[in-house]
Design brief:
Region (Disordered): 399-439
Organism: Glutamicibacter mysorens
Shape: extended
Membrane topology: Multi-pass membrane protein
Largest sheet: none
Biased composition (Basic and acidic residues): 428-439
Structural class: mainly alpha
Distance between the termini: 120 Å
Number of helices: 14
Helix content: over 70%
Biased composition (Low complexity): 407-427
Order of helices and strands: HHHHHHHHHHHHHH
Length: 439
């Protein structure tokens, strides 16, 4: 019996209670693990990201403008030379390619002809001014006498003593500001010297831009990393083409303004009609500011020479010509040439005037046109289908272009690169003959 009970006890497996599993302790709150960026709303994080990048861009642009203002004697002549090169480069290219004239000789002939044309125009305008000012001075003296008669016999009833007191006060003010007047005269003398120096620099820069413009562009492009060269070469070429189109269109607009206002002054009997047309032509290259100045000058000449009625008619002619330019010529010609909205042109001129005065008003629109063309070219990756760039960098564009999702379908850049001749030994650009807009 005992043995059977013992046997049954052995068969019964008694499992002892195991230790309870340890429950992990709750993590204590640690402020160092708090990630504030993840708890910020998405809109706030995006606004902050855009804000600091925008501030860096504004700071960089501000530093660049400040640095350029310190070397304005170099920057302004180069910009003037660039505008003139955009105007004269088609003439040089035509003589070089179609007439087989060596490029250096073509540049010399074009530059000498341009300077001769400008000198002849200024000489004729100066002769007309000197001849017209004699009659105009007589009319001006007659107008002054009428003003004096109105002052003495009109409602003011001034006497000689009152006029003498005004003259004495003016002389006292003149003597008290003699030092300021002398300093202003010295500053004007210095400004004339800077203008002469800038003119010589602009002429030299114009010669080399016409002679070696493409080589200068390639030198700047080759300073960039190899993969960035095709895009930047195409972008700079497209920007230069936009500048050339701007200068051509501005020439046409300025010529139409000069003809309209000049002929209006001629038919109204306003003296100095031809010099006035020349001033309108030159002033039209400065958007808005030039038009206001030359228009006011035309109305003033009509007022001095022919009286109020003639001046009002001249004002109507000026307004008609300028409105035709703003509402017809600018949208139809300039807008298509440089792809800029009229509001963008007005804001660019206003901003350029506030930053750099008259030079800012002169260069604001062409710079904006170039920046607009370069930005559109780069953002649209236009170099991948640009035949001019593919001919230069075909193998490099095919190697750097992104792979398409379909392995059996090649990208447009690779297809075009395979069809275009490309250098095999090195991806360095060759020197083809660019078009008139690309020169």
């Amino acid at each position: 019996m005992k043995s059977s009970r013992l046997e049954r006890l052995r068969r019964i497996r008694v499992s002892l209670p195991s230790k309870p599993a340890e429950i992990p302790a709750a993590p204590s709150p640690d402020l160092t693990d708090f990630k504030s960026a993840e708890d910020m709303p998405y809109a706030v994080r995006m606004a902050a990201a855009w804000a600091w990048r925008f501030l860096i861009i504004v700071a960089a642009v501000g530093v660049l403008v400040w640095a350029l203002s310190k070397v304005s004697l170099l920057v302004i002549p180069v910009l003037v030379a660039a505008l003139l090169a955009g105007l004269l480069s088609p003439v040089v290219n035509t003589m070089n390619r179609k007439l087989a004239v060596p490029r250096g000789l073509a540049v010399g002939i074009t530059l000498i002809g341009f300077l001769a044309l400008v000198t002849a125009g200024l000489s004729v305008a100066g002769q007309k001014l000197s001849a017209g000012f004699t009659a105009l001075w007589t009319q001006a003296l007659s107008g002054i006498e009428q003003v004096q008669d109105w002052l003495f016999n009109g409602p003011l009833k001034l006497t000689n003593d009152d006029l003498q007191n005004v003259l004495d006060d003016a002389l006292v003010q003149l003597r008290g500001n003699a030092t300021n007047i002398l300093s202003e005269a010295i500053s004007w003398t210095s400004a004339i010297g800077q203008i002469l120096t800038g003119t010589l620099l602009a002429v030299f820069a114009l010669i080399f831009l016409l002679l070696d413009g493409r080589k200068i562009g390639l030198f700047l492009v080759n300073l960039l990393p190899r993969r960035a060269r095709p895009a930047m070469d195409g972008a700079l070429t497209r920007g230069w083409g936009s500048l050339v189109r701007y200068v051509r269109v501005q020439m046409v607009v300025a010529l139409i303004d000069a003809i309209g206002i000049g002929f209006g002054a001629f038919f109204l009997g306003v003296p100095l009609a031809m010099p006035l047309g020349v001033l309108v032509f030159v002033g039209s290259f400065i958007p808005i500011v030039g038009a206001l100045f030359t228009g006011a000058l035309a109305v003033l000449l009509a007022l001095v020479a022919n009286g109020w009625i003639n001046a009002l008619i001249m004002l109507a002619v000026v307004l008609l010509v300028q409105q035709a330019e703003s509402n017809i010529l600018q949208p139809l010609i300039m807008g298509k040439a440089v792809s800029l909205h009229p509001l963008a042109v007005v804001l660019a001129v206003a901003g350029g005037t506030m930053l750099a005065g008259i030079p800012g008003a002169l260069f604001a629109v062409p710079l904006l046109a170039v920046i607009n063309a370069v930005a559109k070219y780069l953002s649209g990756r236009a170099w991948e289908t640009d035949e001019f760039v593919i001919e230069l960098y075909g193998s490099q564009i095919a190697a750097d272009s992104p792979k398409t999702s379909d392995p059996g379908k090649a990208s447009p850049a690779a297809t075009a690169a395979g069809a275009a001749p490309a250098p095999q030994a090195s991806p360095e650009p060759r020197h083809p003959e660019p078009t008139a807009d690309e020169e």
